């Protein structure tokens, strides 16, 4: 998706007063009525506020002006420019549309609505507005690129290619045209060409967000770990403490062997914004990267002052991977000397879960009770209690708590796996297996859910079905180490040596190894991925 348009270069925020006088004269020239006066005053106030960067208060003034006089396209333009500055793209789209209702050939409004239509997926509208631009100016590069991009996304490749060719003839260095040229190369499976189109821009200036996004897509599809690392580092440099960018950088550092660098990035995330959401994001990243739990403590040891929230996140990941011993080694020193309370309920719950997984049920029960005193639905404490109840053959109690975990955490795959165990203990094997399908359907991009389901299918003699799930997952998540690892294992089980070799090579490349990229099978080309991966079975 392209970046929504910035305020036009000629937007009057820094030269507001001269245009304010002109529009004010137009308003008052219509007659010195109170409506016209109110509109002129509000418009002038809005422009002064916008020129000072106070876009919120300015918006209120523009709204007052529009309410008084909604028949002037110039007022709607001022309002739309201010909404762009506020990142209110939906509002700006409506304002620009009002401009066109009154002035169908207004170039600024046509440019804006065509870009906004493309950015928000209104592809038919994007093609319609770009055709209006091209009717006014057949050599308008922006109109050609928008028309070509919309046609490309709709599968009208011949039309898109002709428009792109014309745009590149007119302006060969236009970044948005080069991004589309890269996408065409990717569609043909030519990752080298897709990269070479954009690499000079990236090396020279770092490129726009759209350039970096496309390069990252190229590197993901070609399993180029070093390329992904370079783009991730540039994203962090360009956009500061955006959590998703910093998490992506940590992932690439860990995968390419920079344990200290990856740990430092994670520590910064958790130091800056600790809490459930950050821990969940870290666990999801580690699961997708298929990080061995044995590397967690050594990574933490590279930090002089690891944040407790990061340590808890790493322990949470060990619990997700059912490595209760690693989780306990991380948690035991972290919890020492810290009493149970609202702020430590998650820590006590995680320790309870780790202890229960190790068979230390008495200790686990004490920690779980302490956590549940302060958070009655603390997930790990309830999971610990399920394990304790299963060990004591209390199937009814285990099933009750397991259902609470699944209901309160509908996209938490380990909760469904525990529910399955409780259902089996309660004599409900059909419902038990269904729980793992529910986990996949709750989050089709969760490698933990995929691993659980495929293991169950293999155990039930359904290896081919398991491979279908893994194949679809790897098409949706082309750079997932976990996805390709699971798929490779299933390829070996089903005797598909070529598939297993390709998966093994991709996993090696995702870890930064310089080995050749296996060819992409015809039915897995980029333009076919969405269709091939669209359906997920549920039984």
UniProtKB/TrEMBL annotation:
Signal peptide: none annotated. Pfam families: TPR_19. Keywords: Repeat, TPR repeat. The keyword Repeat applies. SMART domains: TPR. Residues 516-539 are annotated as: Disordered. This is Tetratricopeptide repeat protein. It comes from Sphingomonas cynarae.
């Amino acid at each position: 998706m392209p970046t929504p348009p910035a305020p036009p270069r000629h937007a009057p925020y820094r030269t507001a007063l001269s245009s304010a006088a002109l529009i004010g004269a137009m308003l008052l020239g219509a007659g010195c009525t109170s409506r016209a006066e109110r509109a002129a005053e509000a418009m002038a106030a809005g422009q002064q506020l916008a020129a000072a960067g106070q876009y919120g208060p300015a918006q209120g003034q523009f709204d007052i002006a529009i309410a008084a006089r909604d028949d002037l396209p110039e007022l709607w333009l001022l309002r739309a420019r201010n909404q762009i500055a506020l990142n209110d793209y939906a509002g700006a789209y409506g304002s620009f549309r009002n401009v066109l209702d009154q002035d169908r050939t207004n170039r600024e409004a046509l440019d804006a609505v065509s870009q906004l239509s493309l950015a928000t997926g209104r592809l038919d509208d994007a093609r319609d507005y770009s055709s209006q631009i091209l009717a006014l100016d057949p050599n308008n590069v922006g109109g050609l690129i928008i028309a070509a991009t919309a046609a490309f996304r709709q599968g009208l490749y011949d039309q898109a290619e002709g428009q792109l060719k014309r745009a590149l003839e007119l302006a060969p260095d236009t970044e948005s045209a080069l991004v589309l040229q890269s996408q065409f190369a990717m569609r043909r499976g030519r990752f080298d060409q897709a990269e070479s189109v954009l690499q000079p821009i990236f090396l020279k200036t770092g490129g726009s967000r759209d350039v970096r996004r496309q390069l990252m897509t190229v590197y993901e599809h070609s399993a180029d770990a070093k390329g992904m690392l370079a783009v991730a580092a540039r994203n962090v440099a360009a956009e500061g403490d955006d959590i998703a960018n910093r998490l992506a950088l940590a992932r690439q550092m860990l995968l390419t062997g920079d344990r200290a660098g990856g740990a430092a990035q994670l520590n910064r995330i958790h130091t800056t914004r600790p809490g459930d959401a950050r821990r969940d994001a870290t666990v999801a990243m580690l699961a997708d990267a298929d990080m061995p739990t044995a590397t967690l403590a050594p990574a933490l040891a590279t930090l002089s002052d690891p944040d407790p929230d990061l340590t808890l996140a790493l322990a949470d990941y060990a619990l997700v991977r059912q490595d209760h011993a690693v989780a306990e080694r991380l948690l035991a020193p972290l919890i020492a000397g810290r009493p149970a309370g609202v702020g430590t309920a998650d820590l006590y719950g995680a320790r309870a879960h780790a202890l229960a997984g190790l068979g230390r049920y008495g200790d686990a029960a004490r920690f779980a009770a302490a956590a549940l005193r302060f958070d009655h639905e603390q997930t790990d404490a309830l999971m610990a209690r399920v394990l304790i109840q299963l060990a004591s053959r209390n199937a009814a109690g285990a099933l009750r708590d397991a259902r609470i975990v699944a209901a309160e955490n509908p996209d938490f795959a380990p909760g469904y796996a525990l529910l399955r165990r409780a259902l089996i203990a309660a004599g409900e094997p059909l419902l038990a297996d269904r729980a793992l399908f529910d986990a996949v359907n709750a989050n089709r991009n969760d490698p933990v859910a995929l691993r659980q389901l495929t293991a169950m299918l293999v155990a039930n003699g359904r290896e081919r079905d398991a491979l279908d799930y893994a194949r679809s997952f790897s098409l949706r998540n082309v750079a997932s180490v976990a996805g390709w690892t699971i798929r490779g294992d299933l390829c070996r089980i089903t005797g598909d040596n070529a598939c297993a070799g390709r998966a093994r090579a991709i996993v090696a490349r995702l870890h930064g190894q310089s080995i050749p990229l296996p060819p992409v099978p015809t039915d897995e080309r980029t333009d076919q991925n969405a269709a091939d991966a669209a359906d997920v079975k549920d039984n």
